[in-house]
């Protein structure tokens, strides 16, 4: 690793994130542009995922086996079936890869999934707010400018392929952050009685048809 002069990078770092695809299963694209070349430093984005959205740890493990995505998920065991109101926040450390078209640009894509929300009153959608990620650098034994970078409390190696200790640093001068809003379709609370009645009716009808077929075609000793 080489020493990185980051005086300009503190002020010029930009972070953007974008949700790709449609529906409840999306791809989250994170892009970071530093103020200047990162030398031999590792670059990562620390992301706080609200209860309304999650990363599947089994899917993440498969992607990492094929070297498609590198990340650390905390906690690494989560309830995939829990609705939004029974889930909790997650912390994702996403390792970014150098963009070959730009020596100061890094990017990564990770699949994310939206959880089901409670029915709402008077609206057919709920909002999931994704805060802008925090940019982290790990430069091995190099020394970053104390005016621009400060040690970050991150219990993770410099890459997902190593297990040794690593000192990550975050910028003291935070880049401009923009929240990403995800609109999730939800049911109307006013329709609860109708939905329950139709569900009960359909269940009773199907059960009756199954029982009638069993009595007509079944062989009972």
Describe this structure in words.
This is Phosphatidylinositol-glycan biosynthesis class X protein. The protein is an alpha+beta fold and about 220 residues long. It has 2 domains: about 170 residues, Immunoglobulin-like, CATH 2.60.40; about 35 residues. The chain has 3 helices and 13 strands. The longest helix is centred in the last third of the chain and has 26 residues. The chain is elongated. The termini are far apart.
Main CATH class of the largest domain: Mainly Beta
Low-confidence stretches: 1-9
Query: How would you write the strand order of the largest sheet?
Result: 5-6-3-10-12-11
Q: Structural class, from secondary structure content?
A: alpha+beta
Distance between the termini: 80 Å
Give the strand content.
Answer: 25-35%
Major β-sheet profile: 6 strands, antiparallel
Specify the number of helices.
Answer: 3
What would the average pLDDT be, to the nearest integer?
Answer: 82
What gyration radius follows from the Cα positions, in whole Å?
24 Å
**How many beta strands in the DSSP annotation?**
13
Please state the second-level CATH architecture of the largest domain: Sandwich
**Helicity level, as a percent range?**
10-25%
Q: The CATH topology of the largest domain, please?
A: Immunoglobulin-like
Number of domains: 2
